[in-house]
Every structure is written in structure tokens, then in C-alpha cells.
Amino acid sequence: MLFGSNKTMFSVGLSSNMLEFDLSKVEIPKNLQILDLNHNRILGGIPVGFTADYNLQFFNVSYNRLCGEIPVGGKLQSFDYSSYFHNKCLRGASLPSCK
């Protein structure tokens, strides 16, 4: 298992790999600083657990198939539009409303 709250990792860069999984079922370690998952086929939503006191400095889930509200709290609102855009129906933060 790559992800999990008991793992020790500081950076995960898996962009442009055509990965397909449900992000809402993912747990990340609290010491993770970089999570780059852009340009994949990731489904689901951003877990509310990502609002916990994480050490994230960089977060990018753009160009996936995510839906739902971006959870409020933690550092998720500190990342700009480019971290979230081009998803199926992701809402919140600095994103425009779904059409």
C-alpha cells in the first residue's frame, strides 16, 4: 500500500500516470509535505481527513475526475485555483461553480 496514515513519506509525485482510484478512500501521513496527483483519472472527492493538521506545502489534484466540495479547514484553502481546476465537478475554494 502506497498511502496510509502510518507511512513515513515527505513527497509523493504521481502526476501524468493515468492512475485511477478513489481519492476519498485515501489516508495520507501527517508528515507529507508534497502531494502531486495532477493529470490522472482519480475519482471521488477530497477526504475530510485531509483537513487535519497536515504539513502540506504543495497540493495539486488538477486534471482528474474529482467531484464534491473541497473540505474546509487545514491548508486546503491556502492552495490556489490551479491546484484544483479541470476536475469533473469539484467545488469550493477558488473554483467557479459547476455548470
Average pLDDT works out at 88
Number of strands: 5
Succession of helices and strands: EEEEE
Strand content: 15-25%
**Low-confidence blocks of residues:** none
CA-CA gap between termini: 36 Å
- Main-sheet strand order equals 1-2-3
Main sheet specs: 3 strands, parallel
Query: If you compute it from the alpha carbons, what radius of gyration comes out, rounded to the nearest whole angstrom?
Result: 12 Å
Q: Class by helix and strand content?
A: mainly beta
Number of helices: 0
Helix content: under 10%
Report the principal-axis shape: globular
Descriptive account of the structure:
By secondary structure, the chain is mostly beta strands. The protein is about 0% helix and about 15% strand. The chain is built from no helices and five strands. The chain has strands at about 10-15, 35, 60, 65-70, 90. A three-stranded parallel beta sheet has the order 1-2-3, with no helix packed on it. The protein has a two-stranded parallel sheet with strand order 4-5.
How would you summarize this macromolecular structure in one to three sentences?
The chain is mostly beta strands.
Topology record:
Layout lengths: L10 E3 L20 E3 L21 E3 L6 E3 L19 E3 L8
Parallel strand pairs: 1-2, 2-3, 4-5
Which features would summarize this protein structure in a list?
99 residues; mainly beta; 3-stranded parallel beta sheet; 5 strands
